[in-house]
Write a structure and sequence with these properties.
By secondary structure, the chain is an all-beta fold. It contains no helices and 19 strands. 0% of the residues lie in helices and 52% in strands.
């Protein structure tokens, strides 16, 4: 991140080609305040991105644009703003079983696309109470791990086995929340969780596919 005295900063993401040792701009993230001191601050924030088949040329990403108020967006490598809404999109996941199924999380709403992120049918925005998505299982795209709102308390972990239609409580001993990352072992049994909460970092392991 590069910051300047006027309050602007740039936190771009770069792609490094290890074979050719070439570093190129991948996604731009920045914030620039209104130079006149007015309300026209603007910027673009990248919250998450995913690749199809680990190919750096086919990707989908999400976050928010801001000019006065934040505008949530989802964009693809070939189309900017395939989805826009008020707020921000904080997570996006591509199914490992179906390349056309993409999940996204916006506040406590779950969005789904069935055509590789090109359209996002309005009936997939499940109304509250629901949960903010952390991850989907790479072994079963109907298994969704999420945490509950609000942000100001320690959230609990929930799991859905039906693609986010219904959830069951899993755990409350961990500081589940926006900063949590779940990593799935290739054995399909172990799941590793890491998070930061109140200036502390935590690490946890499930040895039973997320039951405990």
């Amino acid at each position: 991140e590069i910051s300047y005295p006027d309050g602007s900063y740039y936190n771009h993401l770069y792609h490094i080609d290890l074979a050719d040792q070439i570093d190129t701009l991948f996604l731009a993230e920045y914030y620039e305040p209104d130079p006149s001191g007015g309300m026209w601050d603007h910027g673009e924030f990248i919250n998450d991105y995913e690749f199809w088949y680990n190919n750096p040329s086919t990707f989908i990403y999400c976050g928010c644009w801001t000019v006065i108020d934040p505008t949530a967006y989802i964009s693809r490598y070939d189309t900017v703003g395939v989805f826009t809404w008020l707020g921000w999109v904080d997570n996006i996941e591509i199914s490992q079983q179906n390349e056309n199924l993409v999940y996204a999380s916006m506040f406590s709403m779950l969005l789904k696309s069935f055509d590789a992120g090109i359209t996002w049918p309005s009936d997939t925005l499940f109304p509250p109470p629901t949960y903010s998505m952390l991850a989907i299982s790479p072994f079963n795209d109907r298994v969704v791990f999420s945490y509950d709102e609000p942000y100001y308390s320690t959230q609990c972990l929930y799991r859905s086995r039906d693609g986010g239609v219904s959830y069951v409580f899993v755990d409350s001993s961990f500081a589940w929340g926006y900063s949590t990352r779940l990593l799935f072992d290739r054995d399909s049994v172990h799941i590793y969780a890491c998070t930061s909460y109140n200036h502390h970092s935590m690490f946890s392991i499930s040895a039973d596919s997320g039951n405990t």
